[in-house]
Amino acid sequence: MRRTTVAIVFALAAVSASAAKPVLPFIADDYAKAVAQARTKNVPIFVDAWAPW
After folding, report:
1. pLDDT given for residue 46 in this prediction
2. What is the spatial distance between Cα 40 and Cα 22, in angstroms, rounded to a whole number?
3. How many domains does the chain have?
4. Does residue 31 fall inside a structural domain?
5. Cβ of 8: how many Cβ atoms within 10 Å?
6. What pLDDT, on the 0 to 100 scale, is given for residue 22?
7. For position 15, what pLDDT does the model report?
C-alpha cells in the first residue's frame, strides 16, 4: 500500500512538473508572426480553432 501511494505521488509530481512549460508555444491573433517564426525554424504551423455553438 505504501509503495502504491509513493508511486502515485511521484507520478503526480512528474505530471505537474511537465505541465509547467508548454510543448507548443501559442501565438494568439498574429498569423503573420506565426508564419514568419515557422519559416525561420522550419516547422509546421498548428492552428487551434473553436466555436461557441
Report:
1. 86
2. 20
3. 1
4. yes
5. 10
6. 62
7. 64
Residue 18 domain flag = no
Compute, in degrees rounded to 10, the torsion defined by CA atoms 28, 32, 35, 36.
-110
User: Domain of 30?
Assistant: 23-53
The rounded distance, in Å, linking the Cα atoms of 30 and 27 is: 6
How many other C-beta atoms lie within 10 A of the C-beta of residue 38?
14
- What's the gap between Cα 13 and its chain centre? 17
Query: What would the pLDDT profile of 6-50 be if each residue is shown by its tens digit?
Result: 788 777 776 665 556 666 778 888 999 999 999 999 999 988 888
